[in-house]
Amino acid sequence: MPIQSVLDFAHHVVEETLSAGDVAVDATVGNGHDTLALARAVGVEGEVFGMDVQAEALDQARTRLASEGVEERVTLLQEGHETMEAHVPASVRGRVGAVMFNLGYLPGSTSTLTTTPETTIPALKAASALLRPEGVMTVVLYTGHEGGPAEAAAVDSWATDLPQEKFQALSYRFVNQKNHPPRLVVVEKRAA
Ligand SMILES: C[S@@+](CC[C@H](N)C(=O)[O-])C[C@H]1O[C@@H](n2cnc3c(N)ncnc32)[C@H](O)[C@@H]1O
Question: Which domains occur in the chain, in start order?
Fold first, then answer.
């Protein structure tokens, strides 16, 4: 089947972009599925920075990464992604191959904490400054929860306004699925 789910397509994009030894960022670690995919893609010489505000999420992710033997190449930070510029070392600025955002709630948690446009948009701006030429950013959007549609609209607006000569942005979405399917925004920094 050539058509991929939103999550599979996001992984496909980052895996096609990253090479061994690259640097990547997971801006919403959650249970660590995306962090693990990034850690595998950058290999033993690479480095991943993962951010989440919830200790519960980082604990789950830490266990997942350790069980796969990739924890040494991942730095987990219990910080909001809106502080990315302060917490991801300045030495990797302009060298990051991929940044993944998977917005919304922590799956399987009783926590009602969710990402918000007030922090997501500054984080997207910070992430776009970290990317290297031809680096990519994936943003998975969920509109089925309160606040989700407003956050998705803010991300759409941010992506639509990106200067075409510096970035290309696309929207990947299923147009005939019911019940608020997730959708994806992908941004690539153009070669210098
Ligand atoms: C949909 S989940 C992420 C799923 C995750 N990528 C995975 O593979 O399991 C969204 C996560 O964003 C986190 N989050 C909410 N606000 C945040 C913020 N300001 N900075 C970083 N993470 C945040 C939540 O704690 C939650 O774990």
Answer: 6-189 (3.40.50.150)
